[in-house]
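Hi Y.,

Following your request, here is the sequence exactly as I used it, all 151 residues.
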Amino acid sequence: MAQAPSERDWQIRLHIYERFVHQGRPPTCAETARQFGMAEDEARAAYHRLHAAHALFLQPGTDDVRIANPLSAIPTDYLVRVDGRTLYANCAWDSLGIPSMLHADAVIDARDTLSGEPVRYRVEGGQLIADGGLVHFPLPFRRWYDDLIHT
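Below is the corresponding structure, written out as C-alpha cells. Let me know if you'd prefer a different format.
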C-alpha cells in the first residue's frame, strides 16, 4: 500500500502548481529539490506519493509531471490564454477549470474532436461565452483515472 502524502508533499504540490502556472511547465524533481533544500531522491519520492494519491499524474515510466489538473504539461487541443499566459488543458472540462482556478477571464482555442475544426470560447466574469457546442464525456467520472490520458 502506498504511503500517504505528507504535509511537505502537499507543499511540494502547491509549488508544482505555482511554477506550472507562472512558467507554463511544471518543475522537474531537481528544481523542486533545490527549492526545498532536499535531495533529488526525496523530491522524486514526493512526486510519486502525490501521483499514487491522484494529486497529480506522472508521465508513465518517468518522474515528470504530465498532468496537474486542470493543467497539461504537453500540448493538447485545448489552448487556454489567461492573464497574458498560454497554458494547456487536458480536455474541454479542464479548459474551464484553468480560468476558474486562477479567478481570471480566458480565451480558449480548441479543436472539435470529431471534425478537427477550430472552436473558440471564452470565460468572462466566471461565465462561459460560447456559440453552441456540446461536450461529451465518454466515461463516467468514477472511471476517469482508469486511463487518464485517454479520458
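The mean pLDDT is 91.

Thanks again,
Q.
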